[in-house]
Write a structure and sequence with these properties.
disordered N terminus; alpha/beta; 28% helix; six-stranded mixed beta sheet; globular; two-stranded antiparallel sheet; 201 residues; 5 helices
Amino acid sequence: MWCLPCRRSPYLEDEMLIALIGPSGSGKTSFICELSGDPLHPVDYHPIKPTTRVTATTVDMRGVSITLLDTPGIGSLAGGRELSEYDIFCLVRNWLRNKRCSAHLTGILYFQSMGDRRPMRPDIDYFSGICEANNFYSSVILIATESGKTQGTGWTKLREYESDLWRGMISHGAKLFLYRNTKKSAEEAIGPIVHSHTRGW
């Protein structure tokens, strides 16, 4: 993982809260680095002992304050076992409770690397109870991240996810996005959630 430690932000009442979840190596942290404008820089990272807590980074997009919650990777090891979607849900729920009892997520970005030979079928219904949207999946963006191996084949892979891996969630209102590993692409990915929350952003 390559990135400067992102600045932590105290929770503000008028902030949007968006959780980033997905398997290890799917691009969550690098997405935050691109969106926040932090230069890429090596930090300590050990695949056997991954981060096991939620970290918050606040960015400003056109005057809208957005707090991004970076989470440990689904399938990463902690305490001698692999973290599941439910484990990540519990970490996010506890973070929200510690910051403000009434806090809810504005949306979720679910990441999947297209270079992964065995992509996961997401099981994120747990998060519906801590999201503010009445239609939970309308606040979910499914983000397929390109890797060196998938450059030039992104749209083909995305259609495969659309017709199979993510078909159920899309049918319930989730949106999909091909992330190009740039700041502009990151802003476009998060745009639908911000727009629906601000009604005209």
